[in-house]
Amino acid sequence: MSPMTTNAAHAETSAVLSVEDLTTSFLVDGEWRSVVRNISFDVHPGETVAIVGESGSGKSVTSLSIMRLLARDQSRVEGRVWLNGRDILALSEKDMQKVRGNEAAMIFQEPMTSLNPIFTIGRQISEVLTRHKGLSKAEARGETVRLLEKVRIPNATNRFEEYPHQFSGGMRQRVMIAMALASRPKLLIADEPTTALDVTIQGQILDLIKLLQEEEGMSVLFITHDMGVVAEIADRTIVMLRGDVVEQGLTADVFHRGQHPYTRALLAAVPKLGSMHGHAWPLRFPIVDIGSGEASVPTEMADTVDTRKTPVLSVKNLVTRFPIRSGLFGRQIGAVHAVEDISFELFQGETLSIVGESGCGKSTTGRSITRLVEPDSGEVYLDGYNVLNLDQPSLRAMRRSVQMIFQDPFSSLNPRMTVGAAIAEPYLKHRLGTRQEAQDKVADLLRKVGLDPRMMDRYPHEFSGGQRQRIAIARALSLNPKVIVADESVSALDVSIKAQVCNLLMDLQEEFNLAFLFISHDMAVVERISHRVAVMYLGEIVEIGPRAAIFDNPQHDYTKKLIAAVPVPDPARRGIKRNAAIEELKSPVRPSGYVPPKRVYREVSTGHFVQAG
């Protein structure tokens, strides 16, 4: 068949996008190594196709290959990519520039890296319209305001002149969608567009994409690792593993009748909100053999929490504020009320989760307790001592009892230090034993977190993200702490690795009777591993109580909103719109002299308190 005949055949096909035998290779040490191999799929008019897989599966490389956004001297893309009947891999770069943003547009995970910080939002969208549509400056301004209104940005006319840093993450993503829609493309490629967003904002963006798709008749290629998002938005689903498509089909078929072991493994590892009904205590995640798709049977934790005893950690009326200064002499004009008069207790063997969206104060709470930031007032009792009154030598000694695990283990591990030395460092610094005893301790801890002790001479960069998090956990355990503050410690991990690390934390809790303060925005994980849950909003605890009470009988409007926004991995929910109000999270900034109102709590049931009014 001649190229002209082939081109004509594809012009008649119903697919907006048709990918045939796409193979992408990168130049590594002088050799071409394929990272995406012989993948083929179609996206039809008005259809949403999701490509799903974990880190390293090749899903983002696929989208970048389609748009020809990979460095030409380091990458090689083979196969055919038909867009509206043309093979765009055969186009010149000049012609491809006309395709991007005009026939096909792309939005990315982090809009701040895609928006120019020195130009206003209005100018950046207007530029697309003047370049691709030939509109005058006045026409482009009017159309930009219309687009901003279309993506539900409040007060669009006034926000035309604002800069990217003046928008929240969710609103910046709306701006990127407006920019992508400016030329009315037939295809929108969305690469992890909701991953960096809070759950309520994620829900709004998913609703927005569905609505705009209906209005514009647009096709969507949605790249994600979140099976809940896939279930809610995709007509068809493509599952990728290490550069290969292992399964594709209608989303309901993939979810309910998945054939490939990896598909079944991926779905089994996804925490499902509501799966804890009937379970009194935290429930381990099923661990799945990717080769067979067989899952282990999840087991409940033992009941080891005794709330009749003295709490291991007691927080009373904790306040942490960050001053805002202005002017030549740095006069304080206000403060960020990050943590505002919060109180709670934590018992041995218990997991208390603190949940909420970005900026609610949950991470500052953890850092205030350990005095990584200095609170303004309040009391934090650990082992009967008020941590906030300790001098530096006493504080160092106190940190033997309370340790932190952070979201990104790579940034908390010294890249020049072997992992064995990193784990042994706190043990030796606190003079808990000799170097030989420290080495024996490291070997034992590595075994406990599921790693080979022979790995102790390796460096952090030689480990995967999940392995590095295990190393960070081993380091936290080296001082035999009573309390571990886990600050978003599993949020950056792939779903299968997240399940393994959560199970490890629960196993260690049972073995050592550890108390966990688990800080997270992932409601489905929190429901699975918690004994009690505290919900934070604008620096305050608005609701706290036993896990079952919070999830089965939420009382505060904000708690209800958080739970309702969680994507559920059930294709029956596809097309459901939450119709959540479009609003940005309110600011915790207050002027100098502001006195917050005294909060009153009512007890709904035993141990379940909600902020009144």
Molecular structure report:
The chain is α/β, with parallel strands linked by helices. It is built from 22 helices and 23 strands. The strands form four sheets. An eight-stranded mixed sheet has the order 16-17-18-13-19-20-23-22, with helices on both faces. It has a six-stranded mixed sheet with strand order 6-7-8-3-9-10, sandwiched between helices. It has a five-stranded antiparallel sheet with strand order 15-14-11-12-21. A hairpin with a 2-residue loop joins β22 and β23. The chain is globular and about 70 Å long. The termini are far apart.
Count of separate DSSP helical elements: 22
Determine the fraction of residues in helical runs and give it as a percent range.
25-40%
Tell me the fraction of residues in β-strands, as a range.
15-25%
Low-confidence stretches: 1-12
User: What form results from the Cα inertia axes?
Assistant: globular
SSE inventory with pairings:
Elements lengths: L2 H10 L4 E12 L2 E13 L4 E5 L6 H8 L8 E9 L2 E2 L5 H7 L4 E4 L3 H4 L6 H12 L4 H14 L5 H4 L9 H13 L5 E5 L7 H18 L2 E6 L2 H7 L2 E6 L2 E7 H7 L3 H9 L43 E14 L4 E16 L4 E5 L6 H8 L7 E6 L2 E2 L5 H7 L3 E4 L3 H4 L6 H11 L5 H14 L16 H13 L5 E5 L7 H18 L2 E6 L2 H7 L2 E6 L2 E7 H6 L4 H9 L23 E3 L9 E5 L2 E4 L2
Parallel strand pairs: 3-8, 3-9, 6-7, 7-8, 13-18, 13-19, 16-17, 17-18
Antiparallel strand pairs: 1-2, 1-4, 4-5, 9-10, 11-12, 11-14, 12-21, 14-15, 19-20, 20-23, 22-23
